[in-house]
């Protein structure tokens, strides 16, 4: 198969994480270094071998890369900070992959890190009037989408809650997850309501954490003596922004377009995916996105979930990490954290969360509904 975007082949050879957690006094430097050192150790690389670094973050201010990476050594490499809302480190990973594919670097780092803090959206600072008077914040937006979905497909609140039950069960088996406790259907349904039918346990926690991934070229894989048996290939990378969709959900339609581009570029059909990590900040998103991705027909997401198709061991494991709902959504690291989980799954190293025989995986994130990034990865033994 040809390389990424028609260029050289690109492989994930190292992954590292700092557990996602509630706000603590831990410095963002310590969070990020834990993840980067973990990725270096996982790959069997030394810091001077890294040629370029991209950092995804949203709440730490300017110049985040340098105060982290200087502790590993001042090597003069290009460092770039990336902000793209929830898709920040997904975008950083895409840029690292494109550098390697294009021949600008043989070894590239993508990391994400964030602390809990005030997030300011530029659209709130335009000085222009807002049509919703600021009343439609994310939980309300997705609560309205949930109401529309349930009405259209004759579903009910339990169908939403089952998404949370599945993903909390996965998170309970993930040592890097913020929420590590299984939840019953009754616990999810009886929890405090946030917006419409969405209860607290159906909304992702926003905490702190870090994630890192190292990508290399074919040439570097062999020249540096890295373990090809654990190298996961990045088959495709796609990024799109919103278009005009009429009255249809722009989140779902943007996902449909972006993932279709990624899968077509990878030469992988939706039915061939074994693992999917998607943007499930609210339970309704999983139901919308599995349909938009082509994992099942429109309106059948809830039924397929109830039948176990999206559980670990089912037809395709959706959010085996626990997803944003249970693993958490520290924003900056979330995208690279998804890459880490998909890589772990395709290597067969996910332990209790392992999807049997996983060969192909997809990582997907939406950033404030305006951008979407999707990556398709292939396992070493496929």
Automatic annotation (TrEMBL):
CDD domains: SCP-x_thiolase (cd00829). It holds the Pfam family Thiolase_C_1. GO terms for molecular function: acyltransferase activity, transferring groups other than amino-acyl groups. Residues 24-179 form the Thiolase N-terminal domain. Keywords: Transferase. Residues 248-368 form the Thiolase C-terminal domain. PANTHER family: ACETYL-COA C-ACETYLTRANSFERASE, NON-SPECIFIC LIPID-TRANSFER PROTEIN-LIKE 2. This is Acetyl-CoA acetyltransferase. It comes from Pseudonocardia kunmingensis. InterPro entries: Thiolase, Thiolase-like, Thiolase_C_2, Thiolase_N.
């Amino acid at each position: 198969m040809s390389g990424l975007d028609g260029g050289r082949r690109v492989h994930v050879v190292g992954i590292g994480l700092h557990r996602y957690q509630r706000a603590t006094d831990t410095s963002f430097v310590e969070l990020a270094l834990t993840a980067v050192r973990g990725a270096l150790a996982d790959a069997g690389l030394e810091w001077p071998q890294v040629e370029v670094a991209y950092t995804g973050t949203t709440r730490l201010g300017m110049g985040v890369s340098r105060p982290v990476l200087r502790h590993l050594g001042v090597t003069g490499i290009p460092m770039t900070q990336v902000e793209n809302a929830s898709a920040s480190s997904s975008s950083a990973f895409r840029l690292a992959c494109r550098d390697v594919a294009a021949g600008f670097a043989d070894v590239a780092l993508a990391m994400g890190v964030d602390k809990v803090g005030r997030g300011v959206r530029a659209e709130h600072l335009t000085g222009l009037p807002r049509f919703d008077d600021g009343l439609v914040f994310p939980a309300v937006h997705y609560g309205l989408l949930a109401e529309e979905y349930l009405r259209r497909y004759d579903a009910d609140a339990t169908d939403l809650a089952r998404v949370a039950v599945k993903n909390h069960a996965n998170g309970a088996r993930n040592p890097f997850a913020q929420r590590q406790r299984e939840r019953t259907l009754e616990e999810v349904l009886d929890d405090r309501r946030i917006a419409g039918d969405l209860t607290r346990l159906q909304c992702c926690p926003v905490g702190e954490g870090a994630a890192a991934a190292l990508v290399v070229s074919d040439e570097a894989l062999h020249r540096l003596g890295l373990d090809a048996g654990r190298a996961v290939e990045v088959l495709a990378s796609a990024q799109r922004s919103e278009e005009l969709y009429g009255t249809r959900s722009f989140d779902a339609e943007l996902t449909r377009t972006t993932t279709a581009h990624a899968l077509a570029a990878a030469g992988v059909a939706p039915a061939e995916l074994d693992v999917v990590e998607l943007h499930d900040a609210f339970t309704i998103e999983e139901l919308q996105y599995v349909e938009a991705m082509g994992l099942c027909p429109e309106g059948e997401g809830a039924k397929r979930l109830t039948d176990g198709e999206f559980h670990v061991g089912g037809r395709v494991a959706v959010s085996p990490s626990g997803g944003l709902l249970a693993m958490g959504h520290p924003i900056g690291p979330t995208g690279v954290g998804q890459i880490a989980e998909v890589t772990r799954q395709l290597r067969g190293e996910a332990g209790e969360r392992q999807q049997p025989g996983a060969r192909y995986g997809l990582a997907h994130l939406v950033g404030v509904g305006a951008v979407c990034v999707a990556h398709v990865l292939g396992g070493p033994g496929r």
